[in-house]
Predict the structure of Cation-transporting ATPase F.
Amino acid sequence: MIERTTLEPPPTDEQEHWHGRAVAEVVACLHTDPRRGLTVEEAARRLAQHGPNRLPSPARRSAWVRFLLQFHNVLIYMMLASAVVAGLLSHWIDAAVLFAAVAVNAVIGFLQEGKAEEALDAIRNLLSLRTTAIRQGERIQIAAKDLVQGDLVTLASGDKIPADLRVVSAKSLFVNEAILTGESAVVEKSPAAVPIEAPLGDRRCLLYSGTLVSSGQGTGIVVATASRTELGRISVMLEDVQEMTTPLVRQMAAFSRWLAAAIGLIAVSTFFTGVLWRGHSADDMFMMVVALAASSIPEGLPAIMTITLALGVRRMATRNAIVRRLPAVETLGSVTVICSDKTGTLTKNEMTVQSILTGKLTFDVSGAGYVPEGGLHLDGAVVSPGAHPEIAELARAGVLCNDASLRHVNGTWQVEGDPTEGALCTLAVKVGLDLLGERENRPRVDAIPFESEHRFMATLNHDHEGNRFIYLKGAPERLFGMCTTYRAGSLEIPMDRALWDERVQATAGRGMRTLAIALKRVSATQLDLRFEDVDGGCTLLGLLGIIDPPREEATAAVADCASAGIRVKMITGDHAETARAIGARLGIGQDKPAMTGSQIEQLDDEQLRLAVSDLDVFARTSPAHKLRLVGALQASGQIVAMTGDGVNDAPALKRADVGVAMGLKGTDAAKEVADVVLADDNFATISGAVREGRGIYDSIRKFILFMLPTNGGEALVVTAAILFEWTLPLTAAQVLWINMVTSSTLGLALAFEPPESDVMERPPRDPQAPLLSWFFVWRLAMVSALMMTGALGLFLWELDRGAGIERARTIAVSAVVMAEMWYLLNSRYILRPVFSREGLFGNSYVWMVIGACALLQLAYVHTAPLQAVFHSTDLSLAEWVRVLVVGLFVFTIAETEKAIIRRVSRQQAPPQAARSGTASFPSQREHHR
Ligand code: ATP
């Protein structure tokens, strides 16, 4: 290859026609090795020379545009129009304050949006693609962005192709290229070169970045990276861009538009009534109407809802639940059923072979984990593996039909690859085999990889004496059907299915995974391995019992879900008995049998619907069964979260209300369609995510309940004054001051509200329940009325006692702000009392914002510049005490109202009705809050 300068990009397919060249030619051109890949140094050099394998980020809206967009909102237009008219009428201060209020709102919105975007960017980075490359002959996991031209990459079903690759080897390698070609049918790939003029869709020997392996295995050499790939050239972005919205946020946005229209209408009619009917001057009336509009517009609402969501989503990410689609946050709160995989999610996925069943005997294996220390025991006595050659033969088969490796790194034994296969490597060392030696003595010629659909793996190997063997391992029922004999010592006995089924049943009943191992001799001329080759004529070497202990935290999480009214169902590919035994340990489906995939197939949809509401453990299922199970659960009105990892789980994940993919063992295909990705594959993380989801939804509701009465209270004060022809207790500028200090400081604290301690003791939220329930409307009206009574009452009282208008207004403004500060404490819980350590001090932001708000209000009352702008006056201590009394008045009545609702709902609903979610009184679901 010609040396290229640093600036010169590597060639693309269009220039080099990689698809028209033989593999050897591509290898030579790219100075690589089709078996060992690049050296680490060469890869680093190429990375430095050509840059990372990453598409340029989509052009972001510039900061200026983002700032200007903050003004693009009908509520803001109304405020700006009022400001202009106020200016034209020479009300300079009002005009300036209106402009300032709009500007403050825009700055807050701008900063919050920035934070929200940062939070979502961080999440996107967590999901960045990883891939398996071969460098210096070693398989290593690297970030896809570190791939360089010439790298050798291995692929398996479910992988997303990380760069453009020239196929080197392929085994039933089918790829979905819909993202590039729009064609949803999968395409088979193979190493043979194609004519240079072949169109993109027919270049069978090229794999395109961003497409998905739907089945099979293969290896390929990277021929193009980053924007030189086909995908890069048509500039399709790989990352999903998260929309910063959810149904609730949209509902609120629609609500504020509706509100704006209503406010506009009321303002206009008030103006004309005042001018034409009551004979006020247009100038005076205009300023009243502006005060009315300014007081009722909740301009800060959408921005704070977004930040609450983004903060919540970031908090979830730090707890390993990565939300890919924001609406899932809300759905999580309504989930009634979680369908979970077993292996790795409910269990640790740390496999250890504990039992070996050969034709004649049952051995126990000592030792735990992957440490190859321990030995064989027979009826409690130690036995030497040498005395039982059938053990070595079985262990050898387990190592050859195996893609995992066992390594001693930094003092610990680690498995690279599938844990089930890792356990077989450990077993082989325990019985005295040398892993590398065995693999060199009998190299692999071909293989049928493990897929959960067919539940076995087979390899074709040869020794150096001209013999060829097929080694098989897999689910016992699957392998038994292929075996005509079984090995007993040196004898081969005709297969006795009943005997072996019984042995499987007994092993699985102890909660162990069962794996059968078999062998078939084939002719020395056989070059490849197909399904027909293993259809019969195999010899069963034995059965392994593998333990995979349940995760300790999963038991607690299952119990948590039960108290939260969420049923946990285990859907696994494992044996029914193993699943039932593990389920019983975790508290899932106790005392009930497990239903198997074949039983599911015999049921029609209606029968399945009935069965799923009764049973909790489903075993030997395939992805197609998962899809039917989700459908059946949804048909009976459940809101389903479903976990999955394989490429074929994608339809079930898509269909579920919340699709949850595994971050560690999950395929890219599953992650791509999931709503949530679990970084640690742990079931406890799902229940944690439900807790957070419920908490976030609560925070938003609390925020709305906090925010709207502020506007409601102010609007009532102004309306009452207009109606009764009193002097306005609050001028437009003063109303805006209140909105600024309360929404920019106080409200923000609720975005940091942690989920309440009893959030998992309530039934799931009814997704149909409207946001503005009667309870919400009542609470809104009540608090608005309280604020009005307090502020207006004090204002009129002060006027009555002879206070000047400016003093009385200063008191009224301070009273509203004080009431807001106290009401913030009420708002921490929707129905629970706040008189507790947790209630008063559980969120330190609450006290920080109350402090900030108090300082601002002190400045408003006691500093000359603000006095000049807002016509405020200094207040005496006695006046401050009266202001404080108004705050306490609102606080006390709001707490009393909660207590009354709690009592009424307790009397109306027995607790179990509330638990099961069948309660009818609307506020029952609010009961615990
Ligand atoms: P879950 O769906 O809970 O993750 P699982 O991992 O136990 O379940 P599968 O991976 O589909 O389910 O495995 C099903 C069965 O296939 C196992 O019980 C085992 O007998 C067999 N099996 C698992 N892994 C392998 C493998 N690497 N090679 C051959 N057979 C395997």
User: Anything to note?
Assistant: Residues 341-343, 418, 420-421, 450, 452, 455-457, 473-475, 513-515, 572-575 surround adenosine-5'-triphosphate (CB under 6 Å). The chain has four domains: 4-57+122-234, 321-347+552-681, 352-547, 695-928.
